[in-house]
Amino acid sequence: MASANKILLIILAILLPPVAVFLKKGAGMDLLINIVLWILGVIPGIIHALWVITR
Asked: What is the pLDDT of residues 9-53, one digit of tens each?
């Protein structure tokens, strides 16, 4: 079941990176960094979200 959760988080990270980071780590520094990256450019936000989810 953990594998299915990870797959869903990866799909969500591609569509809405800040939401995926929030679901994985909660409200914190990772979420703030991801929001800033997402505002500056969608691709950096996606890359950061995928990094947070897979580490």
From this structure: 999 999 999 999 999 999 999 999 999 999 999 999 999 999 999
Containing structural domain, residue 37: 2-54
> How many folded domains does the chain comprise?
1
Kindly give, in sequence order, each residue whose CB lies less than 8 Å from that of residue 17, ignoring residues fewer than 6 positions away. 34, 37, 38, 42, 45, 46, 48, 49
Tokens of 19: 């939401």
Residue 17 CA to residue 10 CA, distance in Å, equals: 9
Asked if 21 contacts 49 with a C-beta cutoff of 8 angstroms, the reply is yes
pTM of structure: 0.87
Closest listed residue to residue 22, CA positions, set 40, 11, 41, 30: 30
